[in-house]
Amino acid sequence: TQPLVDVRDLRVHFFTPEGVVKAVDGVSFTVERGQTVSLVGESGSGKSMTALSFLRLIDPPGKIVGGEILFKGRELVRLPERELRRIRGGEIGFVFQEPMTALNPVLPVGEQIAEALLAHTLFDRKEAWERAVELLRQVGIPRPEGVVSSYPHELSGGMRQRVGIAIAIANNPDLVIADEPTTALDVTIQAQILDLLRTLREERNMALLLITHDLGVVAEMADYVLVMYAGRIVEAGPVEAIFDDPRHPYTRGLLRAKPVIGRRERRLYAIPGQVPNLLNLPPGCAFFDRCTFRMPHCRTVFPPYVEVGPGHFVACHLEVKEA
Ligand code: SF4
Ligand code: MG
């Protein structure tokens, strides 16, 4: 059977006056129905651009220049805009980092949920409003009959994110893409929102593509992990393999400063050096400048993917065995 999502060789380039920035450079992965796949990496690694490609919300000078995104067998990169609109907010829901930017400040939240419903169903206004109250209840908002008439600024950050999630799930999507959904929230609220996402995913058998820089979130939520660096996936595998047997020097670096249970810190890791300038990537491995294991040919030869365990892939010359 075909996977729910099949991304093949996705490329998103930015055509800047200084040159072409390859923000996403040959990314491939699949998501199965009901699965949580986490895309992890530092900011600037291309993870948000990968997510936005599903919506085709890449602003100029950015452009999807290659690859395919197959969703339930339909190819989204070249799908006519009309058909994409039906999928966007319908079969695919989105949760953003800062709900305030996703919500309209001058409309009651109930109106905004109702709008999402009206765009994809045959409900009338009254039915949509009633459904909005029900959705607010499902995302754990107390007294939803009152909150439905509130404006976003009257709600806390956590409540606003619950509203954002209500909109994302309004039309029973098969896939929810959440880009740093808890990064803007306090740690306690963060845990509640993650619990909510996990519960909704299980109850509704939705797949979740969870984008985060936080390995604590990955450990708690993901079935499968994609580690992104400089526009490419450098390691991919089942969550246990990534945490118990990380192979890529970048992944190992991320995990070395793994969060300690009970110690709550925002910054979870720090690998010496900077994410490379995407305008001047070496022709070989993009991690070369920061890698303590580097070998001379790493700079010039592109590291191929090597399968090191079931479903566990690494792009690193250390894994290439001599023939
Ligand atoms: Fe380090 Fe070479 Fe592996 Fe790149 S390919 S991560 S430089 S060892
Ligand atoms: Mg981002």
UniProtKB/TrEMBL annotation:
Pfam families to which the protein is assigned, alphabetical: ABC_tran (PF00005), oligo_HPY (PF08352)
One term under GO cellular component: plasma membrane
GO terms (BP aspect): peptide transport
Location(s), subcellular: Cell membrane
Keyword vocabulary terms for this entry: ATP-binding, Cell inner membrane, Cell membrane, Membrane, Nucleotide-binding, Translocase, Transport
Stretch forming the signal peptide: none
Membrane topology category: Peripheral membrane protein
Stretches assigned to the ABC transporter domain: 7-255
GO MF term list: ATP binding; ATP hydrolysis activity
Chief site of localization: membrane
Keyword Isomerase tagged: no
InterPro entries: AAA+_ATPase, ABC_Ni/Peptide_Import, ABC_transporter-like_ATP-bd, ABC_transporter-like_CS, Oligopep_ABC_C, P-loop_NTPase
Stored NCBIfam families: oligo_HPY
Family under the similarity heading: Belongs to the ABC transporter superfamily.
PANTHER family per record: ATPASE AAA-TYPE CORE DOMAIN-CONTAINING PROTEIN (PTHR43297:SF14), OLIGOPEPTIDE TRANSPORT ATP-BINDING PROTEIN APPD (PTHR43297)
Name of the featured protein: Peptide/nickel transport system ATP-binding protein
Organism: Brockia lithotrophica
